[in-house]
């Protein structure tokens, strides 16, 4: 087989395997509004098997079955709340990407805000401490200032004598 033909065959094989990687749902909705609503709901629900993908993005058989279940329930006229309640009673609150605000989920909702406030407080305290330390180091007593001035005046002529005059 010629190298060009072999390369072409390999490219076509790779392309053909990619087309089988994405599943296509061929569910016929009763209306376009039902389709939009069902897709929106499927985007909000997490795949129980994959755990990091919603029902639309997941390729697992469980996600496919749950997508079809959501599609059927939307076409049957069930409300979004009824569908979400069905999914959460069956699979738990884990299937919700946005957990409900309840007593047991307050830490999920308030935890990031609390951590941000604690972090800001630590940064503010650190900055204040650094500023007070540099201010304390800059304050010299009159005796220390006089000693510093004497040292600076005494060392300048020696430095000038060595550099400025040529013998």
UniProtKB/TrEMBL annotation:
Gene3D superfamilies linked to this entry: Cytochrome C biogenesis protein
Record-level GO cellular component terms: plasma membrane
One GO term of the biological process aspect: cytochrome complex assembly
Statement: the UniProt record of this protein carries the keyword Iron: yes
Record-level Gene Ontology MF annotations: metal ion binding
CcmH/CycL/Ccl2/NrfF N-terminal domain segment(s): 11-152
Transmembrane segments: 106-127
UniProt keyword annotations, A-Z: Heme, Iron, Membrane, Metal-binding, Signal, Transmembrane, Transmembrane helix
Top-level division of the source organism's lineage: Bacteria
One Pfam entry name: CcmH
Signal peptide: 1-21
Job description of the protein: Possible subunit of a heme lyase.
Stated family: Belongs to the CcmH/CycL/Ccl2/NrfF family.
Name the record gives this protein: Formate-dependent nitrite reductase complex subunit
Annotated source species: Shewanella amazonensis (strain ATCC BAA-1098 / SB2B)
